[in-house]
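Good morning N.,

You mentioned wanting to compare the apo and holo forms, so I went ahead and generated the holo version with zinc ion. This is what I fed in:
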Amino acid sequence: MSSERDGKKLVRSPSGLRMVPESGMLSSPFCFDEPQWVPDKECPRCMQCDTKFDFITRKHHCRRCGKCFCDKCCSKKVPLPRMCFVDPVRQCAECALISQKETEFYDKQLKVLLNGATFFVTSETSEKSETMVCRLSNNHRCLFLDGNSHYEIEFARISSVQILTEGFTPGEKDIHTYTSLLESQYITEGGNTRATGMLLQYKVPGSDDLKQMKFTTSEDLNSNKKLSATWLVAMHKAAKLLYESRDQ
Ligand SMILES: [Zn+2]
Ligand SMILES: [Zn+2]
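and this is what came out, ligand included:
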């Protein structure tokens, strides 16, 4: 696969410059398109504070939700990496808050995922565990697993991510599923809960069969258990981000 060296191009949208992959087919699963702007004639008043627009009170569109606001309600310029904007763009208060959290994901967790970490990986079909380095591909579309064997798992094919934890009484709460991530507690790097593994379910290319892989943090001398736990926390946030953007 040549996907590791995808070209990017700069495109100009009404909201600013965006750096996007040459081929739309290769866009990151974490990214989404710009919203349709609410047409000017459909919003005589600020959609937040209800101030009437006139020659002095001008309207501005939030680049994230596309709604219409007065300057006061839409004054913040915040990075919006999920729409590939090069510079911070104007957003309403609600969107600015979400974007700020996502920027944190881009600055921290995404880098952890790209750097990779070491795990014992057990595939459903084989009893043997293999020590593998797992990392996110540069275009964010796949997980690469490298050991004696090599696997590429496309994010689009992942149906569930369960983070296994230790540190409190075993029970339902030990498993954070992709489908119930919204209700799940956050696994923090500090605190009592520690991520110790991950169950990944994905669709095998060319079929509807689900395959499961289990990742556990390795006690191997050559690996860094703390780094692996940090990688799992980052993966949890990534899954949560992808889960939430399914509704958008
Ligand atoms: Zn307003
Ligand atoms: Zn907004």
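The chain has two domains: 3-108, 116-247.

Happy to go through it together on a call whenever suits you.

Best,
F.
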